[in-house]
Amino acid sequence: MTTSIGLIGLGAMGSGMAQSIRRAGHVPFVFDVRREVAEAFVKDGGVACGTLAELGAAADVIVSVVVNAAQTESVLFGGTNAQGEATAGVASAMRRGSVFVMCSTVDPNWSVALEGRLNAMGIHYIDAPISGGAAKAASAQMTMMTAGKPEAYAIAEPFLNAMAAKVYKLSDCAGAGSKVKIINQLLAGVHIAAAAEAMALGLREGVDAAALYEVITNSAGNSWMFENRMAHVLAADYTPLSAVDFFVKDLGIVLDMARASKFPLPLSSTAHQMFMQASTAGFAKEDDSAVIKIFPGIELPKKSVTR
Predict the structure, then answer these.
(1) 240 closest CA partner among 166, 133, 80
(2) Contacts 24+ apart (CB under 8 A), 73-80
(3) How far is residue 301's CA from residue 63's CA, in Å, rounded to a whole number?
(4) How many CB atoms lie within 10 A of CB 168?
(5) Rounded distance, CA 95 to CA 128, Å?
(6) N or C, which end of the chain is more exposed by having fewer CB within 10 Å?
């Protein structure tokens, strides 16, 4: 009996993941609140579902690629549409024994509680945050940090392997995947903030930005985030591949997790304040490299150099 796959959320990551599923020979059922996006995707194969309940009834494995816990709650259990009408979520239509794969960055305790709620409905759950960016999602080269019961993996694993180059199984119960993702986001946020600070200092001191980028990316001080995000700054391109407000959210979750165990995170706290400052200064929806705009007295590049 063929196992069917559904995916919710055709944003920067979700669209690439759905493409990878399709490229692996599966026919994905897809849903996006932007109906036109789902319809454009299925022109090359797949089925666009008009409602979440329709997708829930159609798929044995459902992969959710939405922004946060609140959106995941709405996807699963319903909410209200723009007209104020109640809408059903996928959980209302999912069959017993089906699998829900949650790919958002969330509080690990929330993920643990969600596993219990879904298990009580007869639905398996995999805590599966993702990392790698849109390009790696589209080429099935991203990383998945997962935790779930063996029964869930037995059903969903072929689809996980179709979407990611690395699928780490971290525990047989939810929470471990989200904890590792939170630690990854700690490093990512701090590295972006540090990269922006370094580039800003170089600009303030009159160093040629392109030359600084070339030297650092070939020296011990380089990081993946410096190489990737400072290329955006050099190009003066702040198109939001990952927005400033994502790190306001993610570093906030990092700090909440640490605060619960009274664990100090001085670098994370500083980076979070930098993203908060950038957000309130009007750069919330710009690429996260726009955190460099909080530094006074620097002239940022105004035309494309490299990206």
Answers:
(1) 133
(2) 75/8, 75/9, 76/100, 76/114, 76/118, 78/52
(3) 40
(4) 14
(5) 20
(6) N
Active site residues: 181
Q: CA separation (Å) from 6 to 45, 108, 159?
A: 13, 24, 10
Dihedral of CA 113/264/221/247: which sign?
positive
Query: By the 8 A CB rule, do 112 and 173 touch?
Result: yes
Residue 307 has pLDDT above 50, yes or no: no
Q: Check residue 10 and report its DSSP letter.
A: -
HSE, side-chain direction, 13 A CA sphere, residue 55: 32
* Residues 79-133: tens digit of each pLDDT: 876 677 788 999 999 999 999 999 999 999 999 999 999 999 999 999 999 999 8
DSSP-based three-state secondary structure for 300: coil
65: left (phi over 0), alpha (psi -120 to 50) or beta: beta
Could you tell me the domains of the chain? 5-173 (3.40.50.720), 179-294 (1.10.1040.10)
Q: What is the pLDDT of residue 30?
A: 98
Dig out the tokens for 148 from the structure: 């779930």
Q: What mean pLDDT, rounded, does the chain reach?
A: 95
Question: Phi first, then psi: what are they for 12, rounded to 5°?
Answer: -60, -45
Let me know: does 90 contact 56? Beta carbons within 8 Å.
Answer: yes
Per-residue pLDDT reduced to its tens digit, 214-245 = 999 999 999 999 999 999 999 999 999 899 99
**Considering the chain, what percentage of its residues have pLDDT values greater than 90?**
92
